[in-house]
Write a structure and sequence with these properties.
153 residues, zinc-finger, single chain, alpha+beta, 2 helices, 8 strands, zinc, GRF-type domain-containing protein, membrane
Length: 153
């Protein structure tokens, strides 16, 4: 019988990319309880993939759209800042993107990624039947790349 030996190589560990979505202080609902952050998951809603605040006990019907204040997606933690935090659909706030055209271009890319996530382009089903929403990760990656491009002009 021939002997077999198995060898394996140890590869150096690569830094893991962490997704960090920071939100402004979470609002309280009418019940005076911290609101929960949820994701619209319905296939039939145009807002699929968007985040919102709601009452954790579902007694006061509290509802408000929610957007991350800061999103980072890179091993070095380069931030992408969204403003305003909740409500509204504007992008940028106090950020200086070089010109109005650049800010509009960034907003257009973010809204197209958001639309794609609502129609299921960036969603996939895992082994347990749960949907993994990747729209914020994709958006953070695109925004980080755009910020680098715009600031390195």
């Amino acid at each position: 019988m021939a002997s077999s030996s198995s060898t394996y190589r140890r590869y150096p560990k690569q830094p893991k990319q962490n997704l960090d979505l920071r939100y402004a202080s979470t609002p309280q609902c009418s019940c005076k309880v911290k609101a929960h952050i949820r994701v619209v998951e319905s296939e039939w809603k145009a807002s699929k993939g968007q985040l919102y605040y709601c009452c954790p006990t579902q007694t006061c019907n509290f509802f408000r759209w929610c957007k991350p204040q800061r999103a980072t997606w890179s091993p070095i933690g380069t931030p992408v800042v969204f403003s305003p935090v909740c409500g509204g659909d504007s992008f940028g706030g106090n950020q200086n993107f070089g010109s109005a055209d650049d800010g509009e271009e960034v907003e257009e890319i973010i809204s197209s990624v958001s639309r794609a996530s609502r129609v299921g382009v960036f969603n996939r089903e895992d082994v347990n039947g749960c949907y993994l929403h990747m729209s914020w990760m994709i958006c953070a990656i695109l925004c980080t790349m755009l910020v680098f491009i715009l600031f390195l002009k």
